[in-house]
Amino acid sequence: MTFLNRDYREIITKAVCGKGKKFTQTSHSITPTHKPTSILGCWVINHLYNAKKKSEDTVEINGSYDINIWYSYNDNTKTEVVTERVTYCDIIPLSVKDEHCINDEFDVIAKVIQQPNCLECKISNKGHKIVVEIEREFVVQVIGETKISVKVNPHWEKDHEDEDDDGWDFELTDDELGDVDPEFMDHKN
C-alpha cells in the first residue's frame, strides 16, 4: 500500500492557535499650564498600536494616544486645551492555546474592541493637576502553522466519473431567451 492509498492525509496549514481578550482602565495625571477652574471637555485621538507574541501564554500590545483636555482657568474667564501623548503596554493572557503548532513563527492579529475613551476627567484635590480615567479593550489571535488530518475518499473518482464538473445544468426561460440580441456582434461602438 502506498502513502497515497491511505485513508487520512496530513495537511500543514495556518490556523488560529491562541486567543485572548483584555479590558483595561488606566488613570493619567496631566499638568496643565494654568491652574484649572473647570473641565470643559476631554477626548482621546491618534491611537496607534502594534502587537507581538511575548511568551507561550501572552501577547504584548504597545501603543500610544493623545489626550486633549479643554479647561477653563482664571475663575472661568479664559480657556485652553492641553494635549499629552500617552504610551502604554498591555499584556494580554491567552485563554485559548493550541499546543500543536509545528514551529515558533507566529502572526499576531490584534483588534480594538473599545478604542481608548475618556470615562472621567476631573481636577485633582490639590487643584493643579487633571486626572483622566481611560478605558480600552483588545482581542488578539495568534496564528501559527499546524497539522490537520483529512479523511480521503479513495473511490472519489469512481463515484463521480459520470458527473461533468463543467456541465452545470441551467435552463433558460422564454423570457431570458427573448432578451438575447442575435445581432450583438454587429453593433459598433
How far from one another are the termini? 63 Å
Q: Residue share in helices?
A: under 10%
The main pleated sheet reads as: 6 strands, antiparallel
pLDDT average, as an integer? 86
Q: Could you list the spans in which at least 5 consecutive residues all have pLDDT below 50?
A: none
Gross morphology: flat
Number of helices: 2
Strand order of the largest sheet: 2-3-4-1-6-5
The computed structural class is: mainly beta
Would you kindly provide a written description of the structure presented here, covering whatever features stand out?
It is a single chain. With 189 residues, the chain is mostly beta strands. Helices cover 5% and strands 65% of the residues. The protein has two helices and six strands; from the N terminus they run E-E-E-E-E-E-H-H. It has helices at residues 156-159, 174-178; strands at residues 8-30, 36-53, 58-73, 78-97, 101-123, 130-151. It has a six-stranded antiparallel beta sheet, with no helix packed on it.
Q: How would you summarize the topology of this molecule?
A:
Blueprint: E1 8-30, E2 36-53, E3 58-73, E4 78-97, E5 101-123, E6 130-151, H1 156-159, H2 174-178
Antiparallel strand pairs: 1-4, 1-6, 2-3, 3-4, 5-6
Q: How would you sum up this structure in a few lines?
A:
Helices cover 5% and strands 65% of the residues. The protein is mostly beta strands and 189 residues long. Strands 2-3-4-1-6-5 form a 6-stranded antiparallel beta sheet, with no helix packed on it.
